[in-house]
From TrEMBL:
Region listing for Disordered, in residue ranges: 1-23, 292-345
Protein name per its UniProtKB record: Serine hydrolase domain-containing protein
InterPro entries: AB_hydrolase_fold, FSH-like_dom, LovG
PANTHER family for this protein: ESTERASE OVCA2
Any one annotated GO CC term: cytoplasm
Serine hydrolase domain location: 25-227
Organism listed in the record: Triparma strigata
Gene3D superfamilies with a match to the protein in the record: alpha/beta hydrolase (3.40.50.1820)
Keyword annotations from UniProtKB, A to Z: Hydrolase
Superkingdom of origin organism: Eukaryota
Length: 345
């Protein structure tokens, strides 16, 4: 999972870096495909991000559900949002394995940004697009995607539905209803895709009210063509203008000033720390000050099970001296002290 900011600009927008933004920055949460990961997906999206906006800020978070029957090395490289019920590894044939953990993980990432720079939309590829479309249907507060304004799906498909009781407030029949999600959406898929058929991608688009559909003659990929990038850019421009209607220009200007002030303060602290480095915050502890047992030690060093007193003597000296009074092994310690193991010390 990755995210990026973009501010689609019109040709009339100013190029001054000190001027307040003409439109709010759009923040998009990107969901990678199955058996993929966030760094690779970010690399694939780099041409699109560069095309949309040169100043791109991104962060990467992997999904935590690994694929089955892979080596430990591959488990660190590949991630999935869920396993289909048709998988031979799925315990319950009516459930998407791992979907609850993925939804909880996504909601935590999404909601953690609500008070600072909230996400506005989702871009998903293949299984990530399926996950995003399913997430938009969730009604349960624990998994809910609050404030979702738009959706971009690339080669998405409708996964097998959860049980009859539903999951997260989603009813089984809602998975096949049309025009359920009333948010702007753009759906991109290839007509020669042998992984996800065009019919499967069209089923995802039908979930949305007035979806925008762009098809191409390629396969299971996001085309790196100017035509495709223009379609995405125009879609985001419309969303930027729509987002602008919900923002007070004074608030946008204040946010820009606060960000500038925060940057200046950070630079001042960095310069001051370089000139006058602060004292080390970590205390240096002398090894003699480290806590430990300070009482008496065993007379004879060694380990293993306790042994009779004679066993530690030379063979010729065994049996000489005072005899043991009973089987109490603790009397072998000097001064009549009990064995440390029994004393709980």
């Amino acid at each position: 999972m990755a995210s990026f900011f973009t501010t689609p600009r019109d040709s009339s927008s100013t190029s001054s870096s000190t001027a307040p933004p003409q439109t709010p920055r759009i923040k998009i949460l990107c969901l990678h495909g199955g058996c993929h990961n966030a760094p690779l997906f970010k690399k694939q999206l780099t041409p699109l991000i560069t095309y949309l906006k040169k100043r791109t800020q991104s962060d990467d978070v992997n999904e935590r559900v690994p694929p089955y029957n892979e080596s430990s090395r591959r488990l660190n490289e590949q991630r999935m949002w869920f396993h289909e019920p048709s998988s031979e590894h799925t315990i319950d044939p009516d459930k998407l394995a791992g979907v609850d953990a993925s939804l909880l993980w996504l909601s935590q990432c999404w909601n953690s940004q609500l008070q600072s720079e909230p996400y506005h939309g989702i871009l998903g590829f293949s299984q990530g697009a399926s996950m995003g479309g399913m997430w938009g249907l969730i009604e349960t507060e624990q998994y809910r995607c609050r404030g979702l304004r738009f959706f971009l799906g690339v080669n998405g498909y409708v996964p097998c539905p959860p049980p009859d009781k539903g999951f997260g407030g989603v009813r089984r029949e809602d998975h096949h209803k049309e025009a359920v999600l009333d948010i702007p959406s753009l759906h991109i898929y290839g007509l020669n895709n042998d992984v996800v058929t065009p019919e499967e991608s069209r089923a995802v688009a039908k979930r949305f009210v007035d979806p925008v559909v762009y098809t191409h003659d390629y396969g299971h990929a996001l085309p790196r063509t100017e035509e495709c990038f223009n379609v995405v850019a125009e879609f985001l421009r419309r969303e930027g203008r729509r987002l602008m209607e919900d923002y007070d220009p004074r608030i946008l200007s204040m946010q820009a000033q606060l960000k500038s002030l925060e940057f200046q303060a950070g630079s001042m602290i960095a310069r001051e720390s370089e000139v006058n480095p602060p004292r080390a915050l970590m205390a240096v502890i002398d090894r003699n000050a480290v806590g430990g047992w300070s009482g008496g030690r065993r007379v004879e060093p060694g380990g293993g099970a306790p042994c009779p007193e004679d066993f530690v003597k030379k063979e010729g000296e065994r049996g000489k001296g005072k005899k043991q009074e009973g089987p109490d092994r603790r009397k072998r310690d000097k001064g009549g002290e009990g064995d440390e193991g029994d004393g709980g010390g």
